[in-house]
Design a protein that fits this description.
CATH superfamily of the largest domain: Spermadhesin, CUB domain
Keywords: Disulfide bond, EGF-like domain, Hydrolase, Metal-binding, Metalloprotease, Protease, Zinc, Zymogen
Strand order of the largest sheet: 5-7-13-9-10
Radius of gyration: 21 Å
Number of helices: 4
GO molecular function, one term: metalloendopeptidase activity
Strand content: 15-25%
Largest sheet: 5 strands, mixed
Distance between the termini: 44 Å
Protein name: Metalloendopeptidase
CATH topology of the largest domain: Jelly Rolls
């Protein structure tokens, strides 16, 4: 649909070399594959002052059209390597681009939208919000879509704290994507350090993962989704330092159990302490046994993630 509206692939933007390195030697040699990575010019395309967004619905992943010898693109920011191609739908920047191209903006009275939102030209009484914000004026944390995951609003201090959560889905096809949100805030003028600890997931980055927004909130954040499935240690990922006094963590999941842990503190609080030992489900079918969590002590012990019975801080 975006092509029909005149939108080029995102990695074809004329400013793409500032954000990705394209590796032609890793692209299939046929002309159609090679042409997917042609770079546009400012004379034949218009970015309308939108920002380069690794999470654009029009951005290829790092293995699209690969000949098997390596990634076709490498992100300038390594934490965005898997953001590319993990598209769930049009990003905030995508929508802004199309609205500007078709002169849809400027027809609504001022609505005092917050957090860089703007009045929806199809409904002037509602703001279009960047991901991670909701409400009429984009000043609320999204409620999420899964009753088992409520998210939270947390406050960073000079003491490292642990945040954790689970967003579980059936192991079956045809399940809708669910979302859950955390806001981590700090006093105005301060910044926040985030140290990822661990994650358990059972599907690819397009179906399950964690997004950490720590910079420009109008852009897609870092998509964290380790290779393989099951439990993954994330402590090898460098500490993420926000550029403002807010960090947004979003879980998204369409397949199986998913949980995460991370530590957070005000920047300058020193290195984070070692995370606690992992708390993992010991049965592979814990999601199917969730109804027994409160009636069978063995299930609550063997399925602590699903039953939410991990020790505090784990």
């Amino acid at each position: 649909m975006a092509h029909a509206m005149g939108v080029f692939h995102h990695q074809s933007r004329y400013d793409r070399d500032n954000y990705v390195a394209v590796h032609p030697e890793n692209i299939k040699p046929d002309q159609d594959s090679q042409s997917q990575y042609n770079e546009q010019t400012s004379s034949d395309s218009n970015n309308y002052n939108t920002l380069y967004d690794y999470g654009s619905v029009m951005h290829y992943g790092d293995d699209f059209f690969t000949n098997g010898n390596g990634p076709t693109m490498v992100a300038a920011d390594p934490l965005h390597q898997k953001t590319m191609g993990s598209r769930e739908g049009p990003s905030f920047q995508d929508i802004s681009l199309v609205n500007q191209h078709y002169n849809c903006l400027g027809n609504c009275p001022d609505l005092s939208c917050q957090n860089n939102g703007y009045p929806n030209p199809a409904n002037c009484g509602q703001c279009i919000c960047p991901g991670g914000f909701s409400g009429t004026l984009c000043d609320e944390r999204p409620a999420g879509t899964n009753a088992g995951c409520t998210g939270d609003t947390l406050t960073a201090t000079d003491t490292w704290q642990m945040a954790s959560g689970s967003l579980n889905q059936p192991f079956q096809q045809g399940v809708n994507m669910d979302y859950c949100y955390w806001w981590i805030t700090a006093p105005v003028g301060s910044t926040i350090d985030i140290q990822l600890a661990e994650m358990t997931h059972y599907a690819s980055c397009g179906m399950t993962g964690m997004e950490v927004k720590a910079n420009d909130m109008t852009l897609t954040g870092y998509r964290i989704c380790p290779p393989g499935t099951g439990w993954a240690n994330l402590t090898n990922i460098p500490t993420i330092t926000s550029t403002t006094n807010q960090v947004i963590v979003r879980l998204y999941n369409q397949w199986g159990d998913f949980n995460f842990k991370l530590q957070y503190a005000l920047t300058g609080s020193g290195p984070p302490p070692p995370p606690p030992p992992p708390c993992n489900n010991q049965y592979s079918n814990c999601n199917d046994l969730a109804s027994y969590c409160t009636t069978d002590p063995n299930i609550s012990t063997k399925c602590p993630v699903t039953c939410n019975t991990c020790p505090t801080g784990k």
